[in-house]
Specification:
Helix content is about 30%, strand content about 20%. With about 350 residues, the chain is an alpha+beta fold. The chain folds into 2 domains: about 10-200, Fructose-1,6-Bisphosphatase, subunit A, domain 1 (Fructose-1,6-Bisphosphatase, Chain A, domain 1, 2-Layer Sandwich), CATH 3.30.540.10; about 210-335, D-Maltodextrin-Binding Protein, domain 2. The strands form 2 sheets. An 8-stranded mixed sheet has the order 2-1-3-4-5-6-7-8, with helices on both faces. It is globular. Bound molecules: 2,5-anhydro-1,6-di-O-phosphono-D-mannitol and magnesium ion. 2,5-anhydro-1,6-di-O-phosphono-D-mannitol binds near residues 119, 122 and 124.
Length: about 350
């Protein structure tokens, strides 16, 4: 059957079709993406059961089937590591949950082209309240010589060297959003066939947006530029419709970013007087989201330059972030750059 005449296009079919547009592409990236999607489907199954934890037993306890319960973020981390270790395309991983990267120690992995970085379950404090959480991932082509284990320099590449990045949101439906430099596409998990299917082709972040997303409770700790921008958001003056902007903050980066991508607006997690680099991690959270947002036509900045141009020096380094619609992020930067802590 011609896939063009069929309504459902799976993630796999889509990435293979995309690969065919590039004569030298080998399909290894598609295959790696399929492995990541598989891990996320396994995680999704477990996330959906999270509400039953009180019935089935908490972390460390034994459930009715005699299995020991594992904390969901540990389960997500182990699932991704396990699936990627078995993948033919992955030389090693780095995870927000692990202190150091893991170079897979087998000859197949020594000859694999890519390394994967991930935050296995971002926003995990939201699990208890049944709010959306997510997995964030990034893929770099390794720079260390093939035929040997991957090295730290493979994981410390700037975001502008990313081959691809994405996230899976475990929400009212489960979606995988995936970006390369040429564009962003969204796939919704169709549970009856267990496949992510193309639902949001060629996603673009609206150029203008009316929603700002920040932990506003921290305002007293922010520097004057951020406070001034917050006042701008809350003020009806200077707005086309004479209304202040709306505030939406879940405290789960994947969920807040997903809304920002689809509806427009700004998400920001600034530096403050105590945390001079903000809270969010460059390699696991900010770079992948920056690639997605820029490929969707938006902006991702740390207050004084592109997130994607930061040269990482440590795996777990943090950065302030201002990300979203072109117009509103540029506006925020005009306040922040004037009066920054850094
Ligand atoms: P986590 O990786 O420990 O889950 O923390 C990251 C989360 C993000 O999802 C979210 O944007 C942010 O922390 C919320 O932080 P805060 O509670 O300080 O507003
Ligand atoms: Mg996180």
């Amino acid at each position: 059957m011609d896939t063009k005449k069929r309504k459902l296009i799976t993630l796999d079919e889509f990435t293979i079709q995309e690969t065919r547009k590039f004569p030298h592409a080998t399909g290894e990236l598609s295959s790696l993406l399929r492995d990541i999607a598989l891990a996320c489907k396994i995680i999704n199954k477990q996330v959906n059961k999270a509400g039953l934890v009180d019935i089935l037993g908490k972390h460390g306890a034994t459930n009715v089937q005699g299995e020991e319960q594992m904390k969901l973020d540990i389960f997500a981390n182990e699932t991704l590591i396990n699936v990627l270790q078995n993948s033919a395309e992955c030389a090693g991983i780095a995870s927000e949950e692990n202190d150091d990267f893991v170079a897979f120690d087998d000859v197949f992995s020594f000859n694999s082209k890519y390394v994967v970085l991930f935050d296995p379950l971002d926003g995990s404090s939201n699990i208890d309240v049944n709010a959306s959480i997510g997995t964030i991932f990034s893929i770099y082509r390794r720079v260390s010589p093939m035929g040997a284990p991957c090295t730290a320099e493979d994981f410390l590449q700037p975001g502008n060297k990313l081959m691809a990045a994405g996230y899976v949101i475990y929400g009212s439906s489960t979606m995988l959003v995936y970006a390369t430099k040429i564009g962003v596409n969204g796939f919704t998990l169709e549970s009856s066939i267990g496949e992510f299917c193309l639902s949001h082709p060629n996603l673009k972040c609206p150029e203008k947006g009316r929603i700002y997303s920040v932990n506003q409770g921290n305002t007293c700790k922010y520097d004057q530029g951020v406070k001034d921008f917050l006042n701008y958001c809350m003020d009806k003056n200077g707005k086309d419709d004479g209304e202040p902007l709306s505030l939406r903050y879940i405290g789960s980066m994947v969920a807040d970013l997903h809304r920002t991508l689809i509806k427009g607006g700004i998400f920001f997690y600034p530096a403050d007087q105590k945390n001079k680099s903000g809270k969010l991690r460059l390699q696991y959270e900010c770079n992948p989201m920056a690639l997605i947002m820029e490929a969707a036509g938006g902006i991702a900045d740390f207050g004084a330059g592109r997130i994607l141009d930061i040269i990482p020096t440590e795996l777990h380094q943090r950065t302030p972030i201002y990300i979203g619609s072109k117009e509103l992020v540029s506006k925020s930067l005009s306040f922040v750059a004037e009066n920054s802590i850094a």
